[in-house]
Structure formats: structure tokens, C-alpha cells
Amino acid sequence: MNETIKLMTGHHSHRKFLRHFVIPTHEVEAIIASAKQAPSFENGQFYSMIRLTDSKLKQKLVELNPNNPQIKECSEAILFIADLYRTSIVSAENGSVYDVTDNHDALLTAVSDATLACENALVAAESLGYGTVIVGGIRRNGLDIIELCKLPQYTVPLFILCIGKATDSTKIKPRLPKNITLFENEYKRIDYNSMCQYDDTMKKYRDTGIDKPWISKFVHYFKKNKLQVTTTVLRKQRLIK
């Protein structure tokens, strides 16, 4: 197995970091450069990144996300944003109608571009020996982040990538079995028992105090979506009607 595959298949999140550790500038630049070189639809690069370096700003984000103190404790916290604002300027300057509201393909493209860039940054950071974690729960605070980071219309905050010297010891989280995630030529009907078996695996993993049982977690999530505020954010940012 080559080193890149070994690194990626060995990924596990970290939530505790050595405070006040400073990542060398050239390594931060390498991580950002890796993010920017991620695949992008038609090279549109429909995303932006904001390095969160202001301690007061990070403290406010932790107050909004009390379960994620690593936003302030890590060495580098990078906010990834789906960004359709730049192309709105291009359209306006060329006298064209910017028909993006409720253009779900455009929104999916922007989210995909930002996600690919974030993953590139994560892999680059881990290749340098750092620990990482992606904080997606910030979408609950989308309206606050828009104000705090002065985000323009046609943008939406997605997640924060935290990078630093990990001080915790975590295990690789088991993934869903291949027989219900990888198909050939056509989608196969999934056996519920396979998911129950995975749930049993996650219950054993939960004994370490790291995660919740898989089935109950998502039954609850889809019964009452905790991130419903995202709809309000998307409307405010003129991305949906």
C-alpha cells in the first residue's frame, strides 16, 4: 500500500489540540495551495476559504458551538464557504441576468467544490503530521456566521476545518460495509439487517465513548432535523426562494 492510500484509509478525527502551537507559514501555504488545486466544475471554483485568526471571533464561534472548543484551541481553523457571489459580479458586469435562486444544480456544484477543496486541505494537513476535524455543526449558526464574517449574498458557510497538533488518541471509525455502499452498474436493494450489523459494530465502538449508535442517531436526525436553520440561511442569501 502506498503512503497516500495508507494515510487516507487511516484517517480519524481529532478534537483536542496543543494550544498555542503555530504551524509554520510555509506549511499553511502548502495546505491552502492543496485546497485550491482540488477538482472544480468547469474550473468555476465556486467556494471561498476564511482563515479564522482573530481570537475574539473564534471565541464567539465556540460560544455558538460549545461542543466544539477545538475551533479556538487548534492551530488553524479554516471556514469553507459555498460561493456563488463572484459569478454574480461577472453576470452583472456583463449585463446578464443572474438566475441562481432555486438553481439547485448551481448550489450543489458550489457545495461540491467547497467539499472537494476541504478534503484536499485535510489530506495535505494530515500528510504533514497534523490532526484534523471538520466541524459541520456550524450550519446551525449560519445566520450568526454570515454577520460575524460579513458574508455577501449568494454564499453559505458549510464547515470549519480544524488543524493542529493532536493531543487526544482516537480510533479509526468503522465504515458501512462495502456490500451496501459499492455497487456495480446499478443500485442494489439494501438489506436492513446489514445496517443492523453495522449498528452493532458502532455500538461496540461507542463503548469507547466516542460515538452514538448509528441507526438511532439518524432516525432522530431525519425525524427532527436539527439543521433546519439552513433553509432560512439559503433564503437569506438568495440561493433558494
Automatic annotation (TrEMBL):
GO terms for molecular function: oxidoreductase activity. The keyword Disulfide bond does not apply. InterPro entries: Flavin_OxRdtase_Frp, Nitroreductase, Nitroreductase-like. Gene3D superfamilies: NADH Oxidase. SUPFAM superfamilies: FMN-dependent nitroreductase-like. Keywords: Flavoprotein, FMN, NADP, Oxidoreductase. Pfam families: Nitroreductase. Coiled coil: none annotated. Residues 10-165 form the Nitroreductase domain. Belongs to the flavin oxidoreductase frp family. This is Nitroreductase domain-containing protein. The lineage of its organism: Bacteria, Bacillati, Bacillota, Erysipelotrichia, Erysipelotrichales.
